[in-house]
Write a structure and sequence with these properties.
alpha/beta, 4-stranded mixed sheet, 12 helices, globular
Length: about 425
């Protein structure tokens, strides 16, 4: 679907979307818990729907509702083939969980997930004594447990999501386990995982993020779990306010462990006018200056940061581009190409993205079937000199299906 965004002034109050990352973790924990878990404020984006389907396939009973979702944990495998859609977290988190079952399970996916490497899952599970094979390092994955625990060593430089999966699964294994992690990135996401596990009665020992000790035979306890609003999705709304409006974004907790809360640091360095409370951020159009920012621990911020830097006077440097290769697209290349079409010079040098702020022109751009690229382009369009048409904008459903509706609520002119 192509959507066209016209230059617009936005104002009012919006609620940030529910966190898909936290929703998916809560679904996995609820699957493993005895009894009924209630998840308040769940995300129903495409990635969350994939997690719900997987949980049902692994034996849970899932009852979705508008404000809350109930999940009754289960141990009886219902299907032997699981589909993760395009969710990188689902494939890396549920593969170790699927290894708890003593039957052969096939895990597949769709779209860009078919092109993302899965070697690390295969290698980790094999170290733990699980039969696991991939298709030359790619999907599909075939797994046969049971996962009994033990010791494994993994590389955390590409993603922290496999570690999340192991931390979810190993407490339910018979034996104690130790995970050695080299070069872990996105540490706040592991903090989030441990936070969720604690809510479900699971204890993990984190030794400086390079060694994790997990007691075996722990019992997940059903819980009433409240999902935070998502700083990743909220970042686009905050940047939209700095570019084109005077808005308040509600639901963004100042005590959140989400790594993308660091968008506040980038906005502050750019000189954006903000007022921050415990649960909301008010932000208005500002004259902004170029800034330096390290996004290594928060790679999902690159797209909104490029949109922000496009409206800053001078040359902005954003570190961490090596984290962008294995996403829904090669995000570094996509940002260079698509913002270039709008007249913004974006370059990649070593591990840096360099953005020269200036006038954002109208034009036709492509999302590369990447939800965050689509939202970044639409956000930048709000202050452009002309209309911007975003091709394949339907991909926002992966994380933030209501994004364009929320922009309209704030007064943006969006045409389909």
């Amino acid at each position: 679907m192509e959507r066209t965004i016209a230059p617009s002034n936005i104002n009012g109050t919006l609620k940030a979307p529910a966190s898909k990352s936290m929703t998916q973790r809560a679904i996995a924990a609820a699957l493993l818990a005895a009894g009924e878990t209630t998840i308040i404020n769940p995300s129903y984006c495409d990635d969350s729907l994939a997690a719900m389907s997987i949980a049902e396939g692994l034996g849970a009973r899932v009852k979705p509702g508008k404000e809350e979702m109930s999940i009754t944990g289960g141990e009886e495998l219902r299907v032997s083939k699981l589909n993760c859609g395009e969710s990188g977290l689902a494939i890396r988190m549920f593969s170790p969980v699927a290894a708890l079952y003593p039957r052969e399970i096939h895990i597949t996916g769709a779209g860009s997930l078919k092109n993302r490497p899965m070697n690390m899952i295969e290698e980790a599970l094999q170290q733990l004594g699980v039969e696991c094979t991939t298709n030359n390092g790619f999907l599909p994955i075939t797994i046969k447990g049971p996962l009994k625990g033990g010791k494994c060593e993994i590389d955390g430089s590409i993603s922290s999501q496999l570690l999340t999966g192991l931390l979810m699964a190993l407490p339910a294994a018979e034996q104690d386990s130790t995970i050695i992690v080299n070069s872990l990135k996105s540490k706040p996401y592991i903090d989030m995982t441990i936070q969720v596990l604690e809510k479900f009665g699971i204890k993990i020992t984190n030794d400086n993020y390079n060694r994790f000790l997990i007691g075996g035979n722990q019992k997940y306890k059903a819980a009433r779990f409240v999902v935070e609003s998502d700083w990743s999705g909220g970042a686009f709304l905050l940047v939209a306010g700095a570019i084109a409006g005077d808005i308040t974004v509600e639901g963004l907790r100042s005590d959140s462990r989400q790594s993308d809360k660091s968008i506040l640091t980038a906005l502050d360095r750019a000189g954006a006018k903000m007022s921050i409370s415990d649960n909301s951020v008010a932000i208005m159009r500002s004259d902004m200056e170029a800034f330096e920012f390290d996004s290594t621990e928060s790679p999902d911020l690159f797209p909104p940061l490029v949109a922000l830097a496009s409206y800053c006077n001078g040359v902005t440097g954003i570190k961490g581009t090596k984290r962008l290769i294995h996403k829904e697209s090669n995000r570094a290349d996509a940002l260079v190409e698509e913002f270039g079409k709008l007249g913004i010079k974006v370059e990649v040098s070593n591990d840096y993205m360099i953005v020269t702020g200036g006038k954002v022109n109208g034009g036709k751009v492509n999302s590369h079937e990447d939800h965050r690229i689509a939202m970044a382009l639409a956000t930048a369009a709000l202050g452009a000199t002309g209309k911007v048409a975003v091709r394949d904008s339907h991909c926002i459903g992966k994380s933030y299906p209501e994004f364009f509706d929320d922009l309209r609520k704030a007064g943006a002119q969006v045409y389909e």
